[in-house]
Amino acid sequence: MPLSEHEQRMLDEIENALYADDPKFASSVRKTGGTGGRRPAGVVVALGIVGVALLVGGLALDFKPGGFPVLSLVGFLVMFAAGVMALRSAPSTGSSSTGASGGTRVPGAGKSSSKGADGQSYSSRMEDRFRRRFEQ
């Protein structure tokens, strides 16, 4: 769910205050862009496929020095690295229920079990508490 105008203004004010308080931190954040080092999905998929090929190929071939399928181990490690890269490059959703495309829902987000006694979701109750702090 996108932020409302009021929430966006508040976020901008907080961001500007943070930049004014700590310019060194602000410059480091601006340099990195805040993306967290995203990897193209093609690289991750290609590494996964190469890892599977090495794993199966190592079992199919008779290349087993010392009786241990080293090629299969290398394939597993490549697949594991691809999985780690995929997890590390996944966009963090934080408290929102949108994925990378902006419109997809996270499974299980907003289920009726997270509703309070008055029918509000947890996030709605937290927003109300946050607003009440500044109104008092």
UniProtKB/TrEMBL annotation:
It comes from the Bacteria. InterPro entries: DUF3040. Keywords: Membrane, Transmembrane, Transmembrane helix. Pfam families: DUF3040. The keyword Transmembrane applies. The chain crosses the membrane at residues 40-61, 67-87. Residues 125-136 have a biased composition (Basic and acidic residues). Residues 89-99, 108-117 have a biased composition (Low complexity). This is DUF3040 domain-containing protein. It comes from Dietzia natronolimnaea.
